[in-house]
Amino acid sequence: MIRPPPAPARVVAHIIVYGVSAFMIAPFIWMLLTALKTDREAINSQLFSLPSWQWENFPRAWESANLARYYWNSTVVALVTTVFGVLHNSLAGFAFAKLRFPGRRVLFWTALATMMLPAQASFVFAYLIVSALGFGDTLQALYVPFLASGFGIFYMRQAISAVPDSLIEAGRIDGMSDFEVFWNVVVPSMWAPIGALAIFTFVFSWNNFFWPLIVSDSDATVTLPLAVSHLASGRYVSSWPVMMAALTIVTMPLVVVYLIFQRAFVRGVAMSGIKE
Amino acid sequence: MTLGSRTGYLFVAFPLAAITLFTLAPTVVGILASLFDWNGIGLPRFVGPANFIALFDPSSDPLFWRSVANTIAFALITTPIATLAGFLLALPASADWFVGRTFVRTCLFLPTIISIVAVGVLWRWLLSDEIGPVPHVLRAIGLRPPNFLQDGLWPMASIMAVQVWRSVGFAFVLYLAALSGADRSLTEAAAVDGATGWRSVWHVSRPQVRPTTAFLLITGVIGSLQVFDIVMAMTAQAVSSTTIVLNYSIYDEFRQSRLGYASAIGVVIFALSAAITAAQARLLRERSA
């Protein structure tokens, strides 16, 4: 057994780690408290006093910033991207892991290679292609390019490789089609990686800023990160509490989901670091 | 398993078509487009390396080298600091005697999942000169803080600090997993040989998490060469010469419909990522040898 470090060292270590943790959540608590203040309370010497609980800042932010519209846009884009992105990547991952067809190695390496390509080198022409397809300034333009990804295919292929071939064969002998094998045999044993990929995809889509900035041109397509950026880009923000209420509304769904599905979440967001 | 041959194509057809159409083809065309002058409407005109020559010539594009320097500084300063901090925090947090590991992980990881834009706007307010709580506190304890969002190099320093703040948790979580899975018997054997405390950390723990370190440094640097969101949010989209980064330059050229020129900057980022990755991979390999 290793002897644990002496008690004073352990106390100091706890203080440091907890101190840094407090520093991580303090800005969000500050945001929440400020969202409940009056404009005066937020900017003068009462900076550090408790708010007077102005709950109406939330409906004010919701209406004045037109958040309902952007919430809808963000939700549609993130859900479609997640559901279909995970389905497509899983199907392709299954095919690359368990089905034999000529050219599959070349095709897999092609998908893999796109993981390394920075978006900066492609977005100009991706935008022109999206426009040429008639998606310009529609919600389709925001999700169609993300309905499959090299990373997602790679991740699902690695996960599905672990399913024993004998299970797949057994399904075939039972007369299942390949899709039925995928749906009834592979998917039920893959919920952990599917969940991780789903969370990863959802967070990416919900927070994506660059692509909507390129594509979105009207209220019909503006998503929440873009709306926040517009809201805050004025030289002066008219009301910081309302601004903070808007930020709270924008960030809260993800925080709540994170607190509920913490383990899957950490796994999902950190999964790019899982060792092969 | 010859049965699957036709359905195999069926399952990969749409995903591969989407990747080809929206990633592969645009990248290839983008690299070629860096050799053309094109405004997106008329016919592209072949200009050879002219875009790159103009880019590299400070008298024709005075901002390019600033944006290269800012981007590289951002990547090479924030990534190692966040990685090291994550490791140092994970060391005690992964120990058996640490109380409240899950709670600490929840807190540290929180900034990672929140939109960078929201985080940037929040910090811009926390740091703002007249009304921000941070300068307020600093004044209260008798300091004279600079205007973090405007004075000299402070805007870039503030952006880097926020980047470190939001990415420590990611490194922490990966190190926590790596250290928890590390082979305890090695630490025990080292303790028997008299290596404890920092010597044990340096000679036993650090080598054990090398793959995690390599991963964090390489992906961190590549990711931060593409920095954009946080700069836009913390400058309120008013990017200046002290805060300009390569990705903003591309965006700016794109907005002005100088598509060939924008593509040339894209090629530069691509080349930079590849060069830094190769250099890092080599460095890490040499050290482990």
Which blocks of ≥5 consecutive residues of chain B have pLDDT under 50?
A: none
Q: Mean of residue pLDDT of chain B?
A: 88
Approximate helicity band of chain A: 55-70%
| Terminus-to-terminus distance of chain A | 30 Å
Biggest chain-to-chain interface with counts: A-B, 105 and 109 residues
Order of helices and strands of chain A: HHHHHHHHHHHHHHH
**SSE class of chain B:** mainly alpha
Which percent bin holds the helix content of chain B?
over 70%
Our Rg estimate of chain B from Cα atoms comes to: 24 Å
Helical region count of chain B? 13
SS-based class of chain A = mainly alpha
Structural account:
The complex is a heterodimer of chains A (276) and B (289). Chain A is mostly helical and 276 residues long. Helices cover 69% and strands 0% of the residues of chain A. Chain A has 15 helices and no strands. The model of chain A has no long low-confidence stretch (mean pLDDT 88). Chain B is mainly α. Chain B has helices at 5-33, 50-56, 62-93, 101-113, 116-127, 133-140, 154-180, 184-192, 197-208, 210-225, 229-234, 246-255, 259-288, and strands spanning 36-37, 45-46. Chain B has a two-stranded antiparallel ribbon with strand order 1-2. The longest helix of chain B is centred in the first third of the chain and has 32 residues, at 62-93. The radius of gyration of chain B is 24 Å and the shape is globular. The model of chain B has no long low-confidence stretch (mean pLDDT 88). At the A-B interface, helix 1, helix 4, helix 5, helix 6 and helix 10 of A face helix 1, helix 3, helix 4, helix 5 and helix 7 of B.
